[in-house]
Each structure stands twice: as C-alpha cells, then as structure tokens.
Amino acid sequence: MSSEDKYTLVREVILDWYKDNNRDFPWRASKSLYQILITEILLQKTIALNVSNIYSDFFSKYDDFPKIYKANITNLQSDIKGLGLSNKRAKILKDLSKMIITDYNGELPQDPEILKKINGIADYVSNAFACFGLNHRTFFYDVNIKRFIQRVFEPQDVKLKIETIYTELDKLLPKTDFKYVYWAILDFGYKICSKNNPKCDLCPVSDTCLYFLKSNS
Ligand code: SF4
To answer: Can you give the pLDDT of all 217 residues of the chain as single tens digits?
Structure first.
C-alpha cells in the first residue's frame, strides 16, 4: 500500500467508526463563535465530560462576553471549579472578554492569531477555534491526537516534533469537513486507542498501525 493510500484508508475508516461511536457533546452542534471559543478554553487540561457537566449552566449564565467581563471573578472561578485550574481559566476568560469589548467593540475577531495576545491562549485554542468555528483547515493536537498519530504513522521510539505532527495531520485531513476527523480521533483516543491498554483487538485500523504491527511482530 502506498503512503498516500494509507492516509486515505485510515481517514475513511476512522470517519466510518465515528458515525456509530461519536460522543454527543453539545458544543459540536453549536454555531455560536462565542460558545465555540469559550468551550475550547474550558476544554484545556480537563476531560470533556467535566465540560459537558457544566456546559448548559455556564452558557445560560454567561451568554456573551459582557457577562464574563462584568462577572465577579470569585463567582466565575466557582462556576468552573469542576474543571480544575479555575483561577487561571477564569483569568483567561476575563482577559479575553476585556480585550474583545475594549479593543474590538464586542465583536469576536475572525483572525485567530489575535486571540494569542491573551496569556493562556496558544496554538491549540486558537487553531481549534479556527477549525471548528471558522472552518479553517488548521493543525493542532492534544495528547490523544498526538498518541494516535505516533502509534499509527510514526516510529514508536522517536520523540515527535510539532512539525512532524502537523505534517501528518496535513496528510490525514481531508480538504473539507476536516473537523470530523479531529472529533473522530478525539473520540477514538478516548474509547479505543487509550493511553493505557489500547483496545487493539477492536480497532478497525490495526492492520495499518505501526504500534500494533511492532507489538505483534
Ligand atoms: Fe491504537 Fe491499537 Fe488501534 Fe493502533 S491498533 S490505533 S495502538 S488501538
């Protein structure tokens, strides 16, 4: 199988798996750029289930940037304490809301690079927002995405560089509808290709996975 064929195959199999096994998180159906961006900040360094648990109450209370801007910081911290890192996370939300209101007249800028002016917002959040909110074909990864990329496509004993992960994502992502590949990998990493004891016997891409082939050679 050619290298190109392998990426096409993995993409198709993963998307097929996702149709029946996706996690039904409310933010995946949201069309609100505000909600999509704030959710990516909430999702940093916590598990998605924690965000799911507070999602409805949070956005009922904080339905736009002015609500966060005007909120008492202690109350905001309390409302997100279930996610962990609540002091740091609340400061990011406050700083972001302040910037949007004072520098951008309350309008969320369509340039994700601007978001990185906020201390605590880096490539992952800005690029995930650009992908899920603005439909830009951006590259970003968390531990689940990195683990999947390394196991399937890369030698297991090499420390992956950011550029390598981005190159692999560039080959794996389709030209359109790329967000579904990201969601599929995230859910696949949670349900099948977990950090400990991956369920390789249930895995639909095991035939092409370097980790699996090496473990069974
Ligand atoms: Fe992950 Fe195992 Fe599947 Fe490879 S074969 S992608 S390690 S679950």
So the answer is: 777 799 999 999 999 999 999 999 999 999 999 999 999 999 999 999 999 999 999 999 999 999 999 999 999 999 999 999 999 999 999 999 999 999 999 999 989 999 999 999 999 999 999 999 999 999 999 999 999 999 999 988 889 999 999 999 999 999 999 999 999 999 999 999 999 999 999 999 999 999 999 998 8
Q: Is 43 exposed, middle or buried (0-12, 13-18, 19+ CB in 10 A)?
A: buried
Q: Distance from the CA of 199 to the center of ligand 1, in angstroms?
A: 7
Q: Which amino acid is residue 41, in one-letter code?
A: I
Q: Which domains does the chain have, with CATH numbers?
A: 3-23+139-215 (1.10.1670.10), 31-132 (1.10.340.30)
3-state secondary structure of 43: helix
Q: State the pTM of this model.
A: 0.94
Ligand 1 centroid–CA 26 distance in Å is: 27
Query: Which residue puts its alpha carbon closest to atom 5 of ligand 1?
Result: 206
Q: Whose C-alpha lies nearest to ligand 1, atom 1?
A: 193
Q: List ligand 1's pocket residues with C-beta within 6 A.
A: 151-152, 192-193, 198-200, 203, 205-206, 209, 211-212
Nearest to 90 by CA among 19, 25, 41: 41
Place of tokens 């008492």: 72
